[in-house]
Model the fold of this input.
Amino acid sequence: MRYKQIIFDVDDTLIDFAATESFALHSLFKAHHWQLTDEMQRDYHAYNQGLWRRLEQGKINYDQLSRMAFTNFIKENLGIAVDGLAIMNEYRSYFGESYKLLPGVMDTLRYARKQNYCLTVLSNGETFMQRHRLELAGIKDYFSLIVTSEEAGFSKPDTRIFDYFFAHTNIGPADTVFFGDGLQSDILGAEKYGFDSIWYNHRRRKNKMNLHPLYEVTTYPQFVTLLKSDFQKQLQ
Done:
């Protein structure tokens, strides 16, 4: 085998982030009897993604993200002053109960484990929430190691989260490949640390960062094709 270990991201790699975010946002607004329009939902997604990019770039920390997100968004869209951290914690309680797997995840994990790959997780997120969602989705036991940014104290693509990760596994970077959807977090992180990655580009985004994943796939069956060929054949 060319690799011994596969690291998976969680949101929008294993679990459908769009479905999770929609469920959590609708649940939050319903609980407070706030009206949520399609435009507001799109605006929140864009705003939240921008905050996470700033986090990954080291411009804000996780606590600042947690306090800023709903404080600003609710004020601007509903004209209501809220305790942003309390609302974020409530939102995350709903977020943690959504676990829709992306198509092909289960079959891929089963195949990879049969081929004796060591399957692991490295996620920018909260430890309990990510573990809980993986458990609800029925895939937690596929992974021998689950590391989150909360646990490590650093977020992808910071090299220190990879230091933490590899300190907790006996398989080194040379025998590891990262499979994730995030260019700014997963692919950049692996590239900065000096090991291979596969970009799961199922949202069909453009690579505007001049990054160089080993492969780019848009479906899990394409990833299985790589596993079956032991990564020796380029996808057609």
Remarks:
- The chain has ten helices and six strands.
- The radius of gyration is 18 Å.
- Residues 38-56 form the longest helix (19 residues).
- The beta strands are 5-8, 118-123, 145-148, 176-180, 196-200, 215-217.
